[in-house]
Design a protein that fits this description.
The complex is a heterodimer of chains A (136) and B (52). Chain A is 48% helix and 21% strand. Chain A contains five helices and three strands. In chain A, strand 1 and strand 2 (36-46) form a beta hairpin. Chain B has a domain at 20-52. Classes of the chains: A alpha+beta (136), B mainly alpha (52).
Chain lengths: 136, 52
């Protein structure tokens, strides 16, 4: 299976590249030994209903075409979503939005989905530490 | 790449170019025109690359 047009487009013109200074959450995933490495940065805000949302999201990725396309698509899907919704984003959601990935490249979309989960967990961990400190 | 002693991150970030007796100068010039730009782009989105 060849890469879909959407995969190639996301690879050639990826969205939301870069870093966020002092991110609310940072998810580092993958390792250079297997060949793919993703860092997902998030900034958390609130919507009108007072729910926490992904206000901004950026990524840096070292890896193949599918890894870069998956990280770009992840950031597009996650931006503006509530944390609750964003946590539910699956590798299938990412692959579907890219008009499917070749089977041997599905792990790239897994990596992107897990990277975001890690970034949100990092945010929640920091937040609970802060709440504990405030109570003292 | 690993066998010639590169670290994993260097091996995955390497590009091997092969020439043959059929490769002409024009093709080499073209490769030199397009590859550095792509390398620059990929470095700019890599978490491992730091500008010196």
């Amino acid at each position: 299976m060849q890469y879909s047009k959407k995969v190639l487009e996301a690879f050639k013109h990826p969205k939301n590249i870069g870093e966020i200074k002092n991110p609310d959450g940072l998810g580092k995933i993958g390792n250079p030994v297997c060949g793919d490495l993703m860092w997902i940065y998030i900034k958390v805000g609130k919507n009108k209903e007072g729910q926490e949302i992904i206000k901004d999201i950026k990524f840096k990725t070292f890896g193949c075409v599918a890894a870069i396309a998956s990280s770009s698509m992840l950031t597009e899907l996650a931006k503006g979503k509530t944390l609750k919704e964003a946590k539910k984003l699956s590798n299938k959601d990412i692959a579907d939005a890219l008009d499917k990935l070749p089977a041997p490249k599905m792990h790239c979309s897994n990596l992107a989905a897990d990277g975001l989960k890690r970034a949100i967990e990092d945010y929640e961990k920091k937040k609970s530490l802060k709440t504990k400190q405030d109570k003292k | 790449m690993i066998a010639i002693g590169l670290k994993p991150r260097e091996a995955h970030g390497s590009l091997r170019l092969s020439l043959s007796k059929y490769t002409n100068e024009e093709e080499v010039d073209y490769a030199l025109k397009v590859i550095p730009k792509v390398v620059e782009e990929l470095r700019s989105i890599s978490p491992l690359w730091r500008k010196k």
